[in-house]
Design brief:
2 copies of one chain form a homodimer.
Chain A (H helix, E strand, L loop, with lengths): L1 E2 L9 E2 L12 H25 L3 H12 L3 E2 H8 L3 H13 L3 E5 L7 E5 L1 H22 L4 H13 L7
Antiparallel strand pairs in A: 1-2, 3-5, 4-5
The first copy, chain A, binds a DNA duplex (30 and 30 nucleotides) through helix 4.
DNA sequence: AAAATATGTCAGCGTTGTTGACATATTTTT
DNA sequence: AAAAATATGTCAACAACGCTGACATATTTT
């Protein structure tokens, strides 16, 4: 604890000691996660900029490619955003020809989402720099180490609703 | 590749096969990182909501606590945002009594930032649920496994400018 | 026929990032 | 001492992407 000036009257207190892992807090992981994720998404961000798209578009293109035919409701559940938020970016992706909608064959209220070839190409282009970054981070690591990372990422997630 | 209808004329093409790791892309890591980070920041988000603060405030409080006395320029460099963005949240944190500014002892143009006791308490309260989540993810993992995670997070980051 | 469901849309708002321009205090350079 | 550079603050406008609330339409279920 310190004091703003050498005078006694005000006693304006502030902490001048760095907050370290004394309380059993793993700041290396906390900060590492922040910096790593920020840099991780900066790669596709740079690509998206030229198309006039953003991160929200990236996520939609990604998951539609990962599971072609998923419905709007499925996508909302995965992304955990509102339909109004999704509508904005989805409309742009459809208008730009990256994604198509098909009425559900059984339930015609549904809109099943599929990537076009452009949409697939875009998803791959966005994943590529991320893959290179992952490979660089994995460089020199054993198979067990890599498994540990995968397990860690899974363990950091909330329980999947089933 | 599929077709929207059985008709031939239009040939509206779309991909109906899921994009898997065929191109050597590790989607498990890519998606795991996305879901893990999203859930990771949701914990402090819930706490911040009651104070009327957001994620941007969290980051500022965190780094000021980690390195008391850092200057505004230092903070901008760490967060990689513009001073106008920082000003908004920093002002609120100062007005709310979580952070104090002190003119630099050598260079009086500088504003050195310090947490107050409230600011320290807030930083700890925000870190706590994140720590618990990390511990849960680390559960049952060896020391080498944990080191691998730390190394992975470091390797995912851009080279530090020095 | 009525209710529920899946989706779309309009309107407005909040947070947090951006750029550009300019002001002030202080330090460094000439 | 004057001029230039630096550290910070501030005003204004804008963009991306979350949110809520309300309402419309088509389709399916009850």
């Amino acid at each position: 604890m310190g004091r703003l000036t050498s005078e006694r009257k005000a006693t304006i207190e502030f902490c001048d000691q760095p907050l370290t892992g004394e309380g059993g807090i793993d700041f290396e992981i906390i900060e590492g996660f922040f910096f790593a994720y920020r840099d991780f998404i900066s790669d596709p961000d740079a690509i998206l900029e030229s198309s006039g798209f953003g991160r929200a578009h990236h996520r939609v293109v990604h998951f539609v490619n990962r599971e072609p035919g998923l419905t709007v409701a499925d996508l909302l559940e995965t992304l955990k955003i509102t339909k109004q938020s999704l509508a904005r970016v989805l409309k742009q992706l459809i208008d730009s020809g990256y994604i198509r909608q098909v009425a559900g064959p059984e339930d015609r209220r549904q809109r099943k989402l599929y990537p076009t070839q452009s949409g697939r190409d875009l998803a791959l282009a966005l994943a590529q720099p991320q893959q290179e970054r992952i490979e660089r981070a994995f460089e020199g690591m054993s198979v067990e180490d890599r498994k540990a990372v995968t397990r860690f990422l899974a363990g950091m997630q909330n329980a999947r609703q089933e």
